[in-house]
Design a protein that fits this description.
396 residues; alpha/beta; Beta Polymerase, domain 2; Rossmann fold; 3 domains; six-stranded parallel beta sheet; two-stranded antiparallel ribbon
């Protein structure tokens, strides 16, 4: 289901072109693909998003319906805030997701699919993520998927001192893993990437060695660990490729950690003798074991999310009430002026000025109490009833 950066503009244009959607942001990471939309109708929008996912991935809806979740109104806001804080990540509190949320929002803005409603929501979500990481220890210790991947390898091998490792992929995830490895005491870190210059730049930054994709098999015959996270749309290593590599290793075991989305290594390679193949599920299980240490921080972050959710909803309700209040005041002002103009010929300039001031003050006093009550009740069932009554009574 994943959508890479290059395909995101086209995907957004496809999504926003559907009948029941007026704004859209798509967030696609190693752990999720989510569409945040401003919907005209819930059921129509749900169908639009489900069809979008199906057509984008060329997968019939019934094959992924069990994995599909939907939130709306306050629950949708709360979910995005939790995502931005790292509470819904494979690694609790990881910091990479905050940048991914911001990038998804920025892309939608550039493509013109993000309007007032989602701009306000995502701006607030980024602020909530920053607040959670500033005021709590939720992002202390293991702070990213790349960091967790290296920690998992170190646990499996009893440390990385003297080990030789290869990082396949020099994007953000690969760079993060390579940076963690550079501080681990490893004997050598080899970096392989489709773009040779990018591999060389990353290897130089961490004191490693860069190789081309054509050298992967030869290098894998000697390393202890492969960490892979390319953006390739197809497998980088088939089952037969890994089998040939293992035949050259003289029974020396190989640990592979594949955190690419989609996967870089054929899952069947894990069935080969001497191969241990770990993926995002293993990484999540490893990260979850450390959850107890941060349980108190988790509750503090949830408290921040609850507070910020209420603040967002209050502001949102006020924004929704404002146009109706403005329409009511405009309607009253139009009627006041019409009546004043109708009798203008009978009034001297001084009298007109006095009547102008009197009627303006009278209208302001009459509208004060309805305005206050509508603002106070905005966003509640009572507020909805008051708003509907005003529309009907004053033809707004």
């Amino acid at each position: 289901m994943t959508i890479d950066d290059s395909g995101l503009p086209k995907a957004l244009a496809d999504l926003i072109g559907r009948e029941h959607l007026s704004e859209a942001v798509v967030l696609s990471t190693c752990n999720r693909i989510e569409a945040y939309v401003f919907a005209e109708t819930f059921h129509g929008a749900f169908q639009n998003v489900r069809d979008f996912l199906s057509e984008t991935a060329h997968v019939p809806p019934e094959q992924f319906s069990d994995s599909l979740y939907a939130h709306y109104e306050a629950d949708a806001v709360s979910h995005l805030f939790s995502v931005a804080c790292g509470l819904d990540s494979a690694v609790l509190g990881e910091h990479e997701i905050q940048g991914q949320v911001k990038d998804a929002w920025e892309t939608a803005r550039l493509e013109g699919t993000c309007g007032t409603s989602l701009n306000t929501l995502f701006r607030h979500a980024v602020e909530v993520g920053k607040r959670a990481r500033t005021e709590t220890g939720i992002s202390h210790h293991i702070t990213s998927v790349s960091h967790a991947a290296v920690a998992l390898v170190a646990e499996r091998l009893g440390g990385l001192a003297g080990r030789r490792l290869m990082v396949l992929g020099a994007g953000d995830m690969g760079a993060g893993m390579a940076a963690s490895l550079s501080k681990s005491g490893a004997a050598e870190v080899v970096v392989a990437n489709r773009t040779a210059g990018r591999a060389a730049e990353l290897a130089g930054r961490i004191g490693g060695r860069a190789v081309g994709l054509g050298q992967i098999s030869a290098e894998l015959s000697a390393v202890d660990v492969l960490l892979t996270s390319t953006g390739a749309s197809s497998l980088m290593l088939e089952h037969c490729d890994v089998a040939e590599i293992m035949a050259q290793r003289d029974s020396h075991p190989l640990l592979i950690v594949d955190v690419a989305v989609p996967r870089d290594v054929d899952p069947r390679a894990g069935e080969l003798d001497g191969v241990t193949l770990l993926d995002m599920d293993d990484l999540r299980a490893f990260a979850d074991r450390g959850l107890r240490e941060r349980r108190a921080e988790l509750e503090r972050v949830r408290g921040i999310i609850g507070h910020e959710l209420n603040r967002y909803l209050d502001h949102s309700s006020a924004r929704e009430a404002a146009p109706l209040i403005a329409a009511l005041r405009t309607r009253a002002e139009v009627l006041r002026k019409e009546e004043l103009d109708r009798h203008a010929a009978r009034l001297s300039p001084g009298e007109r000025e006095a009547v102008e001031a009197t009627t303006r003050g009278l209208v302001a006093k009459l509208l004060h109490e309805p305005t206050v009550k509508l603002k106070d009740a905005a966003g509640s069932p009572r507020g909805d009833r008051l708003a509907e009554a005003l529309r009907d009574l004053f033809d707004l």
